[in-house]
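Troubleshooting entry. The earlier prediction with zinc ion gave an output that would not parse, so I re-checked the input for stray whitespace and re-submitted. Clean input:
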Amino acid sequence: MGMRAIVEDAWLLALGNANAVLLRQGRDLALIDAGFPGHEKVVLDAIAELGLRPSDLRHLVFTHGHPDHIGSAAAIVRATGARTYMHAADVALAETGGPFRPMSPAPGVVKGIAYRLFWRPRESMPPFEIDQTIADGETLPIVGGLRAVHLPGHCAGQVALVWRGGRLLAGGDVFMNMMGLGDPIGFEDEAEGRRSQRRLADLDFGAVAFGHGPAVTEDAVARVRRAAARR
Ligand SMILES: [Zn+2]
Ligand SMILES: [Zn+2]
């Protein structure tokens, strides 16, 4: 439960109302993002389900430093000893646990409501240390290769992570997949966020998992390109 296969060796985990992605290469595991606080058991159960041990989770990589993507990180690191990776622009968010930088709501009534319901920039998260920063274009030599593409706008330190040459893309909150592919709830810089949406749509990938909503495994590139073109 709480663990859904996306493609071979990749699973979507629901950590509250936010996703994490678990990747496997042999006995090595990497987790992308760490959800809301209090959901570390979902991750530990998934590791056990695969017949592996907590210490087999070697890497914890973040698409960005928002509270709904780092909430359970401190507890996961304590339980597994995983090495942590984040873009330099967001490291201070993880290491202080907040407050978070301001965002403006994305256009539209529904996004405005979601923004008011879910965006809590002054809430604080359990802080933890980032062991290694990730830069645009860098490929981390872990779980078969994880290439970072810097896509700011929603959040200054946001990266998309291209796994195994495009088998799967972890797209963070560049878009979200709630009631179809659309904008995240807000932007730090909307113009930059639009450029990042178009840049993500130019990547090549077989499937994509965003931070919110189900993964897209059919016609993923075409669907993302349509969503980017609507904006
Ligand atoms: Zn976010
Ligand atoms: Zn999010």
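This one parsed fine. The chain has a mean pLDDT of 96.
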